[in-house]
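Researcher: Please translate sequence to structure tokens.
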Amino acid sequence: MRGAAAARAADSRVRYFEDFSAGEAIECGSRAVSREEIVEFARKFDAQPFHLDEEAAARSIYGGLIASGWHTAAITHGLFVEARAARFARLGAGHKMGPERSALTHL
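Model: Translation complete:
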């Protein structure tokens, strides 16, 4: 096999962690994140002013409301699972997420 056919065949096989190379990039799609989602997540898991309150966030070093790093990590993981779960060996169940939050995973 050559070119695109070889790439499709290689991409369709089940992969285990040891099959990945350091520096490999995997496109994982995107997902929009609303202000309401940012605040809801922060209330439950990371209640810092710059995640909860727009006025307090405006006075912070960030200059405005930002999502928690934990929220970003959870979204990134979800995008990875949704984009590639069928092709990779699973350690747990996958879940669905909507479009518009980008993630590019480097190993």
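Researcher: Any highlights?
Model: The longest strand covers residues 25-27.
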